[in-house]
Amino acid sequence: PHTGTQEYEDGVPKIPTACITVEDAEMISRMASHGNTIVIHLEMGAKTYPDTDSFNTIAEVTGSKYPQQVVLVSGHLDSWDVGQGALDDGGGAFISWEALSLIKDLGLRPKRTLRLVLWTAEEQGGIGASQYYERHKANASNYSLVMESDSGAFLPTGLQFTGSDKARAIMKEVMSLLQPLNVTEVFSDGEGTDINFWIQAGVPGASLRDDLYKYFSFHHSHGDTMTVMDPKQMNVAAAVWAVVSYVVADMEEMLPRS
Ligand SMILES: [Zn+2]
């Protein structure tokens, strides 16, 4: 089955819910259209366990000229309990890791700090992201760009971006550097679960744009395994992530907020 969260308003009976995959729904539909009587045997094992400690994982390349200023790349380290979490969100976590790793291997150090955050407990409601924001929001004016990849890290078609018109124009120029990979589009809606606090505080935000149809074919199911990931596509996604984060971190000015 496809899995996910279920929330209840106060004061209503907490009736258990379940959902099935699109494939199973289509199979049941075909059986019904053949006139078959359908009997479904459903077993549910969902449980809520007590809270426990977990931690964001953070690494950074400290900026050479404006170390207190930050460009942040991120994905979440936890996953749903079914599957392996390869596309949700191993892909996003590891293209973010790879962006810093490539920049370090190339011996580059941008003017401002390039920070990797692998969020914890995204699936339980963005708990790691919320904790990080609470601890760092006093420094929000020093965040130039926050980036998150949480849609699989398949072959990207561009970048989703939220920010001022001036910042968008700069992002279009940055993305034009990726012409050799043919990934130059700047779309709207840069929001993502783990970076929304920052975007709401006025920090420009970006998300990787790729094939959401493929993402939701495997998302939160036993189908989310390493076999779904394509190393060549992940390399392109990592290249986009590295180029965008490095160039924005190395520009003389921060991205304009207005
Ligand atoms: Zn996710």
Description:
Pfam families: Peptidase_M28 (PF04389). InterPro entries: CPQ, Peptidase_M28. This protein has 258 residues and is α/β, with parallel strands linked by helices. The chain has a single domain (57-250), classed as Aminopeptidase (3-Layer(aba) Sandwich), CATH 3.40.630. It is 33% helix and 17% strand. It has 7 helices and 7 strands. It has a 7-stranded mixed beta sheet. Zinc ion binds next to helix 2. Residues 76, 88-89, 122, 150 line the site of zinc ion.
Count every helix, treating DSSP H or I runs of 4 or more residues as helices. Answer: 7
- Sketch the major β-sheet: 7 strands, mixed
- Give the CATH topology: Aminopeptidase
- Structural class of the secondary elements? alpha/beta
Provide the number of structural domains: 1
Mean pLDDT: 95
Kindly state the number of beta strands: 7
Give the DSSP E fraction (strand runs of 2 or more residues).
15-25%
What is the level 1 CATH name?
Alpha Beta
Residue stretches low in confidence (pLDDT < 50, at least 5 long) are: none
* Ligand names: zinc ion
Q: What topology, given as strand order, has the largest sheet?
A: 1-3-2-4-7-5-6
